[in-house]
Design brief:
The chain has nine helices and 14 strands. By secondary structure, it is an alpha+beta fold.
């Protein structure tokens, strides 16, 4: 029993029992839920320590709280007590609901401004376009700003283009299709498919109705239960899919993955504000065509420093991303480096 527990003290000398390897944040939640949720820091034996600090038997802990402080998902990485985990998850879920409710109102307002009726069909189109799982995810991303006006206008443009294509296909359905001359291409090692104008790499399956092979002209179709299916452009089902489900069609093409993108490493540092890492990664994730390979960021006494490995298409895209990260509150320095 003694090997599995530690005994620590409050500033008034009250004895508390916690599991071995419990953090200062676990201690805060053992005092009271409100104390844990508003915990900003802690002093152990009179010395300021981070919330993740591992406690030892005999330590005296003073919890520092703030009414403006809120829990974040990183807390779940270093609490070990069931009470702390349950309370943090509940608080995060409540915050997500509030953000999603606000996001729904924002989306309704923006669609009204763009002369588009807000209804289930449009919401489902948006969910498919942004490759999300549920309408809740969609509203949440609008609420936290992960989807901006530019991306929404791109959806509207694509949607309007799909409607025009549908009308054209109805008018020309009875006409014999003209043969489009193939342009001779340099030999290429086609080994992957990318989707959308930003050439994203997504999971997909090759359709069995037309069995496309590397180098064929293809398009993607977002199915309800089976992810993205890839069809040849001259697939027997192509006209039906593009006419009846234009909003679920994705531009697609075969590429040589060895020539697709480039690795870049960013060194980033600044003041460790609440949720700053989440803010930085959200900006990277919301930039189409940019992928995160790894993140190694650590905080120490109010400051953070670390490196992020990403994949980009060119230096212009990288410089644009760096400028966006520099605007995040608390970020003081962002620079490209040669190694992790």
């Amino acid at each position: 029993m003694y090997a599995k527990e530690i005994y620590v003290f409050t500033p008034k000398g009250e004895l508390k029992s916690l599991p071995k390897y419990a953090s200062a944040l676990d201690f805060a939640f053992s005092i009271h839920t409100d104390v844990g949720l508003k915990c900003r820091g802690a002093k152990v034996n009179g010395k300021l320590v981070p919330l993740s600090h591992i406690l030892k038997s005999g330590d005296q802990i003073e919890v520092i709280t703030s009414n403006t402080n809120k829990p974040n998902s990183r807390w779940l990485d270093f609490v070990i007590t069931a009470r702390a985990k349950t309370k943090i998850r509940a608080a995060l879920k409540d915050d997500e609901k509030l953000v999603a409710e606000e996001g729904k109102a924002v989306l309704m307002r923006k669609l009204r401004h763009l002369k588009i009726t807000f209804n289930d069909k449009v919401v489902n189109e948006l969910v498919a376009y942004f490759k999300l799982r549920t309408s809740f995810d969609l509203f949440y991303k609008f609420g936290n700003g992960a989807i901006d006006n530019t991306q929404l206008k791109a959806f509207v443009s694509q949607r309007n283009g799909a409607i025009v294509s549908y009308l054209k296909s109805k008018l020309s359905r009875n006409k014999a299709p003209k043969e489009i001359p193939e342009v001779a291409e340099e030999a290429t090692k086609y080994d992957a498919i990318v989707f959308g104008k930003d050439e994203e790499t997504l999971d997909y399956k090759l359709s069995k109705c037309c069995n496309p092979i590397a180098g064929d002209k293809v398009f993607g179709f977002v199915t309800i239960n089976d992810g993205i299916k890839v069809h040849k452009k001259n697939c027997p089902n192509a006209i039906s899919l593009q006419s009846n489900y234009a909003y679920r069609i994705l531009f697609a093409k075969w590429i040589d993955s060895t020539k697709q993108d480039f690795k870049a490493i960013l060194h980033i540092s600044g003041i460790d504000n609440q949720g700053i890492v989440n803010n930085v990664t959200r900006i990277i994730s919301s930039n189409m065509g940019v992928y995160i390979n790894s993140i190694n960021i650590a905080g120490d006494e109010g400051f953070f420093d670390g490196k992020i490995s990403i994949r980009v298409k060119n230096s212009h895209q990288l410089n644009k991303l760096i400028k966006k990260i520099q605007k995040v509150e608390g970020v003081k320095k962002v620079e490209r480096v040669n190694s992790l």
